[in-house]
Amino acid sequence: MSAEAATAPVGRSLASPTTESAGAKLLLIVLGLGFLALFLVIPLFAVFAEAFRNGVAVYFEAFEDPDTQAAIRLTLLVAAIAVPLNIVFGLAASWAIAKFEFRGKSFMLTLIDLPFSVSPVVSGMCYVILFGASGYFGPWLDKHGIQIIFAVPGLVLATVFVTFPFVARELIPLMQEQGTSEEEAALSLGANGWRTFWSVTLPNVRWALLYGVLLSNARAMGEFGAVSVVSGHLRGLTNTLPLQVEILYNDYNFVAAFAAASLLAGLGLVTLVIKSLLEWRYGGEISSKHRK
Amino acid sequence: MKRFLAARLLAALTVVAPVAVAAPAAAQSTLTNVSYDPTRELYKDFNALFAKHWKAETGQDIRVQVSHGGSGKQARSVIDGLNADVVTLALASDIDAIAKATKKLPADWQKRLPNNSSPYTSTIVFLVRKGNPKGIKDWNDLVKPGVEVITPNPKTSGGARWNYLAAWAYGLKQNDNDPEKAKAFVAELFKHVPVLDSGARGSTTTFAQRGLGDVLLAWENEAYLSFQEFGDDKFEIVFPSISILAEPPVAIVDANVDKNGSRKAAEAYLNLLYSPEGQSLAAKHFYRPVKPETVSNKADVERFKSINLVTIDDTFGGWAKAQGEHFGDGGVFDQIFKPGN
Amino acid sequence: MSRATFRTPSALPGFGLTFGFAWLWLTLIILLPLGGVILWAGSLGVERLIQIASDPRTLAALKVSFGLSLLAAALNAVFGLILAWILTRYDFPGRRLVDAAVDLPFALPTAVAGIALAAIYAPNGWIGALLPFKVAYTPLGIFVALVFIGLPFVVRTLQPVLIDLDRELEEASATLGARRPVTLARVILPTLFPALLVGFALAFARAVGEYGSVIFIAGNVPYVSEIAPLIIIMKLEEFDYGAATAVATIMLLISFALLLLINLLEAWTRRRLGHVS
User: Fold this and answer.
1) Which among B75, B196, B338 is the nearest to C220, CB-wise?
2) Which chain A positions have a beta carbon within 8 Å of C263's beta carbon?
3) How far apart are CA A10 and CA A14, in angstroms?
4) Quick check: A284 contacting C, CB < 8 Å?
5) pLDDT at C166 over 80
6) Contact list, A141 vs chain B (CB under 8 Å)
7) Are the C-beta atoms of B220 and B81 separated by less than 8 Å?
8) Does A278 touch chain C (CB under 8 A)?
9) Of B24, B83, B209, Cβ closest to residue A70
């Protein structure tokens, strides 16, 4: 960074020995923002530009397709099942991990993190290995007429897998930081365990919880790779919205594909807005140590 | 009071969400057709035709659910338990694989319907850019320096396996049936392939929408369709001196229809493909009907050019043999794609 | 072994319930399914496993996945550091907006990112048309997608560390006569290094397994632009569960090793920054 060698005492602040020169600042800002624009902003913009390419009327026509409507309903359904399951798990796991000291804790944490780094393809595939007709439990399921993969249960399982860590990972660092003294005080005042949890712990972590739910919901609705493996791609039946995007794209229906994509992108943007508002308003109550 | 807001929000979420996903109207019977990649437009129309027919015949409403993808991949899904009533795939060996792995339909399924269970056939042609700037006339033009060829991956796509075999047939014909020389030709051809998509539709998109490559090896129906989708002024079809008769077969998955109680509908569905209306629809979507005389719009039939076609049985000894030899693990295709070849 | 040595005694209730439930859920959702994959691969026998693992096409795909992920994570480390720095240290119009935008890849579905990137980096796309070389449908396209999905990891790992960074150290360094670049290189960078490494590792781990955004923009040419997850899909589509589970197991082991490394690095970071939790 040789640009910093030049000292230029201009700009909004005086050059000080603990900050960079105005020129260096400008350079860094331009570099950072340019990078962001090239890789993040332009693709996002492209989604909407392509979706509205043939006008607003064509855009809305895309959502009259019954298969696309079914995909939207299915996506909501899968998220509505998967996210609450992860809330329950996240609360239980973070209570055990954050409020107690026990052996093997870091191993447990690593396992919880595992879905972050497991390829989505593998996440979907492991349920095929378990429940597919030629998988471990396939013959038994088939005999009893239970359909898991290529049906809603498989889609839910794959979604739960990929969104597994989100809630727990938001709660654990915060709960660890808050320690156990408040809970101990409540208990000593005669509250039972559940009451302590509901009136002391939960209010303390509510914003972090909401934050985790948001991220987990965004991922649940947007997951592609894992659900692609277990879906079977039946139009109007087992296609979630991201899969419908791919199908429309391959149907040469580019405008409809980007219209469906814009819905998902809109969901992502809403998630970001709420998340930013939460951070801005309740920043202190959401752990500053979170990384996702 | 803000304290329980989070809890209330969560409660609201779990209450509202199921309402938002109020189940679609039930009480209509369904039929599931698992098909390959380029039949999307055909079956969209055909399903509507069938629903009308079924209503007229039985008074019942029926909804046909379709799934499209690379033919091999679709067969895998059915083997893994995808509840298909009928399969309409790109080639016989994929249905053979289902029969062999699941025993859900008999090994001789292909004898149950006329014409090897193929209500329509197709072939492999070249799609080039308007004006044919690289002067592509036949297979040997594809291996000229600077020519880029687009084809999907033979491991996952049925159409790509027909592409590959058509090239092989040309290689045999040019070299007095010397398989080593045919192999060398196909190997050289695949060196000109910059992109391998997993299905036929992906390759068409790559060629037509993304502007990659000089020649697309395509299903004839897919090539004609690209005129409709992307405009008449962008591409030209080149018919090579020799190609292959591609027979995409259809079959009922017996164990599934018996479980679903849909045998009658499934049979009616496949039979309708052979009816004059079904044949007319196939021709309209650029598939070569097996009973061209029954097609209502004669122009749809007359536009098909007659080409010199080899068959899988005569040139390759049937699909069972070709599949293992060329596309199995360690087969010829794998050898061709080894580095340094 | 008595229970007391397994966990430190605490006045709080509910350990048994939550610990038991968490493990039950972990077992059902994570351990059992992944165990099934590993078991299936294990049943193939060592010889077959080695044969699959040493298949040149599989090796080439692993090389593509790992090589490009490393490069993408490296680029993200550089620009992630710059972004984290300008977001925490400088004030400029729209800073809050930029800060929020960094999370875009978390919120945007991968398939949407994939078709959007393919559309703009294709030879006839907005950016692709301006470039003299091809991006989409080449390894470079994969690289672009992997940069996209990995960026937030580096920024979000560095930001809290930068906020917590003790300014007195910088002032001391300046008081002792060090010029700003020297302070940056000798004082700040070493302090940030562990966090940077964590961010890098997270971005890398995510990139190695990425599928949705890559397949739209990769050419999927064997030996050139075919990624490891695609090999798994292909093997599944060819009815070859054995090979699919074998490649999946290789990738799983690598993910697990990476995560272990990341957790160790994080512990190290906390110690270095003097946070005892």
Assistant:
1) B196
2) 106, 109-110, 113
3) 7
4) no
5) no
6) 81
7) no
8) no
9) B24
Query: Which DSSP string do the residues of B86-105 spell out, in sequence order?
Result: EEE-SSHHHHHHHHHHH-SS
Q: Which two tokens stand for residue B96?
A: 């053979």
Look up the ipTM and state it.
Answer: 0.87
Task: Summarize pLDDT for B72-99 with one digit per residue, the tens.
Answer: 889 988 998 899 999 999 999 999 999 9
Per CB-CB distance under 8 Å, the chain C contacts of B187 are none
Helix (H) or strand (E) holding C231: helix C228-237
3-state secondary structure of B235: strand
Burial class (CB in 10 A: 0-12, 13-18, 19+), A101: exposed
Consecutive H or E run containing A43: helix A42-51
- Is the Cα torsion angle B132, B137, B142, B146 positive or negative in sign? negative
Q: Which mean pLDDT values do the consecutive 10-residue runs of chain B (341 residues) have?
A: 42 42 52 94 96 95 92 88 95 93 94 96 96 95 95 88 96 94 95 85 84 93 90 92 96 94 96 97 96 94 92 93 89 78 38
- State residue C5's pLDDT score: 64
**β-bridge mates for residue B150, sequence order:** B216
Q: Is B133 on the interface with A (CB under 8 A)?
A: no
- Please give the structure tokens belonging to residue B306: 């007659």
Give this prediction's pTM: 0.86
Q: Which residue of A has its CA nearest to B229?
A: A252
The CA distance from C149 to B124, in Å, is 39
Which residue from A165, A170, A158, A150 is spatially nearest to A78, judged by alpha carbons?
A158
Q: Tell me which chain A residues have a C-beta less than 8 angstroms from the C-beta of B63.
A: 236
Residue B227: count of CB within 10 angstroms of its CB? 16
Residues in chain C: 277
Compute the distance between CA of residue A20 and CA of residue C185 in angstroms, rounded to an integer: 13
Chain A residue with the nearest C-alpha to that of C174: A17
Q: Report the alpha-carbon distance of residue B78 to residue B61 in Å, rounded.
A: 25
- Helix, strand, or coil (residue B123): strand
As a whole number of Å, the end-to-end CA separation of chain B is 73
**Who's near B192: CB < 8 A, 6+ residues apart?**
B142, B143, B147, B148, B149
Q: Are strands B120-129 and B235-238 parallel, antiparallel or unpaired?
A: antiparallel
Strand partners, B327: none
Does the distance separating the beta carbons of B17 and A79 come in below 8 Å?
yes
Window 161-190 of A: residues touching C by CB (8 A cutoff) are: 161, 164, 176-177, 180, 183-184, 187-188
Q: Residue B76: which residues within 8 A CB-CB, separation 6 or more?
A: C236, C237, C238, C239
| Phi and psi, residue C134, nearest 5° | -80, 140
Task: List the subunits that have 3+ CB pairs under 8 angstroms with A.
Answer: B, C
Distance CA A153, CA A160 (A): 10
| Cα–Cα distance measured from residue A205 to residue B155, given in angstroms and rounded to the nearest whole number | 51
**pLDDT of C277 higher than 60:** no
Give the per-residue pLDDT at B338.
65
Our CA angle for B156, B159, B164, nearest 5°, is 90
DSSP code of residue B240: -
User: Distances in Å between the alpha carbon of B99 and those of A230, B64, B95, B135, B178?
Assistant: 21, 23, 6, 44, 33
Residue in B10, B66, B80 nearest the CB of A128: B80
Residue B305 DSSP code: P
B32: nearest Cα among B72, B74, B66: B66
CB contact under 8 A, B337 and C60: no
DSSP states of A208-227 as a string?
Answer: HHHHHHHHHHHHHHH--HHH
CATH class of C64-226: mainly alpha
B120-129 and B215-219 beta bridge pairing: antiparallel
Kindly determine whether residue C137 and residue B212, on different chains, have CB atoms separated by under 8 Å: yes
How crowded is residue B126: how many other Cβ atoms within 10 Å of its Cβ?
25
Structural contact between residues B211 and A256, judged by C-beta atoms closer than 8 angstroms = no
